[in-house]
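Homework help board

Subject: predicted structure for assignment chain

Our instructor gave us this sequence and asked us to write out the predicted structure in token form, then describe one feature. I got the tokens but I'm not sure how to describe them. Can anyone check?
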Amino acid sequence: MKRIFLLVVTNLAVLAVLTIVAHLIGLDRWLQVRGSSLDALLVVAAVFGFGGAFISLLMSKWMARNAMGVRVIREPTTANEQWLVGLVARLAHAAGVGMPEVGVFDSPQPNAFATGYSRDSALVAVSTGLLAAMNEQEIEAVLGHELTHVANGDMVTLTLIQGVVNTFVIFLSRIIGNLVDRTLFRSEDGRGPAYFLSVIASQILLGILANMIVMAFSRWREFRADRGGAHLAGVANMIAALEELKRAHEPLPSHQFAAFGITSGPVARGLQRLFMSHPPLDERIAALRALPAA
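My token output:
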């Protein structure tokens, strides 16, 4: 969950930097002088929008390793490390992906993630809390879930969706900035003092709305990854792993987990649900129980 949050925050930060750079080098003014060409503006928006998303994707492994303190297992030195690397290798082969890097990070909470810019260049990491709390079958199900993300190319698809919404955020924010400046300051070319401030404000607002789309895809892909984990490790083991996650996170230690969907209470409803990267665990468990018998 934190990995998705880091990706979104990095993407927004890259967009903010690109916006400031565009203003400082005069790119916005260059477009306006040429009649605010919508075609040219859309091209620039697409370059910046997809650029920000793909920069975030390329940085994803480095960012996850450093932000979460992941220790990559280069050469297994203990029996547990050998078992973990061997399990990932077996699941990766079954999922049809290249052998990912395998890592462990210190956290009392059971957690795991997979990230990377391609199916054959991924990083799969588990927390020390997960290794301590779950049995071997449950760990296998969790890793099957994460490797399904890799096999489905979820990070790349998420990046493409982010690039599309970024493009429209950049495009529409400049249209809004131009209109606001013309309306408030009566400037003929829309290049008055209100333009840049309006662009920044509208880009933030539209970016928040656009992230609802990204989070909706993220929630959908979790159901699909659960089915993949169930296929690789068994439905019962996948359900048991989610039940263990539920026990570990309830009662919640703080409200920070609510935004990531590790809850089944009122927070899972209403406006806040639109910003959750993961569906509530109860819904994921129910979806697995509704699968037809093999």
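Reply (TA_rk): Your tokens look well-formed. For the description, you could write something like this. The CA atoms of residues 109 and 248 lie 7 Å apart. That's the kind of observation they're looking for.
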